[in-house]
Design goal:
This protein is of the alpha+beta class and 144 residues long. It contains three helices and eight strands. The chain has one domain: Hotdog Thioesterase (Thiol Ester Dehydrase, Chain A). The strands form two sheets. Strands 3-4-6-7-8-5 form a six-stranded antiparallel beta sheet. Strand 1 and strand 2 form a beta hairpin. The radius of gyration is 15 Å and the shape is globular. 28% of the residues are buried.
């Protein structure tokens, strides 16, 4: 069990260990910073995240976006009694990336009792916009 503070994960390092044996770990996604209503992370552009033509796969960008927003959503609720699931995700892919890393920042747009909306901006090593995404998540009661 992860150490928590008020049922929230205590450190980015522990959160990265928790996600290690999942799609998040397989894609090399790392959480680099978290704060009130934001989550930052990075993902390598390598053989795991590229399409056959050698550039970043759009699905990998969406995986990064959904990972960051979902972590943020769970940090924003009482996770002992509530959980969040994705309802909708959209993205605009702006620029291709062939190597290095991409960096995402998820920020809360709306934190309601039943839904949350998060915006995720993904940039390359030169801080150029690669993808912009928006997620809507449902906030559900674990006791249902």
């Amino acid at each position: 069990m992860l150490e928590t503070v008020g049922n929230k994960l205590k450190t980015e390092e522990k959160l990265n260990r928790f996600c290690q044996n999942s799609l998040v770990g397989f894609l090399g996604i790392e959480i680099t910073d978290m704060g009130e209503h934001f989550v930052n992370g990075k993902m390598p552009v390598d053989e795991r995240t590229k399409q056959p033509f050698g550039c970043l796969h759009g699905g990998a960008s969406l995986s990064l976006a959904e990972t960051l927003a979902s972590i943020g959503a769970m940090q924003a609720v009482d996770s002992e009694n509530l959980f969040c699931v994705g309802l909708e995700i959209n993205a605009n892919h702006i620029k291709t990336v062939h190597e290095g890393y991409v960096y995402g920042k998820a920020e809360a747009v709306h934190l309601g009792k039943k839904t949350q909306v998060w915006s995720v901006r993904i940039v390359n090593d030169s801080d150029q916009l690669v993808c912009i995404s928006r997620l809507t998540l449902a906030v559900l009661d674990k006791k249902q």
